[in-house]
């Protein structure tokens, strides 16, 4: 009960102080309040419209992604398989080249060693 009582007491004191020290008349305060509330309403309406547009655009993007997934997925899988096949081929070729270079180095090393011993 203490918080609620303090809250109401503070609201009463602040409201009384504002009414007693306010330099505008009652009708001027009402006009200011009405203009403020209209501005807030217009801002909220604009925000709601922007939120709706963002939501709609997000929905459109999600639809496009689903379509892209359906259209591009088979092509991507085919390209991935082709890439894997080419990678295997090139890996084998590179390994063969490395073995050939290794054999040549071994042969050259043996020849150099024979020349040096003779």
Q: Short description, anyone?
A:
The chain is an all-alpha fold. The protein is 95% helix and 0% strand. The chain starts with a helix and ends with a helix.
Q: SSE string, helix = H, strand = E?
A: HH
Tell me what portion of residues adopts beta-strand conformation: under 5%
Rg over C-alpha atoms, rounded to the nearest angstrom: 41 Å
Number of helices: 2
* Share of helical residues: over 70%
Structural class: mainly alpha
Count of DSSP strands: 0
N-C termini distance: 110 Å
Task: Describe the largest sheet.
Answer: none
Which oligomerization state do the chains in this entry correspond to?
single chain
Average pLDDT works out at 84
Residue runs with pLDDT of under 50 for 5 or more positions: none
Task: Describe the fold and architecture.
The chain has 118 residues and is mostly helical. The protein has one domain. It has helices at residues 2-21, 26-117. The termini are far apart. The model has no long low-confidence stretch (mean pLDDT 84).
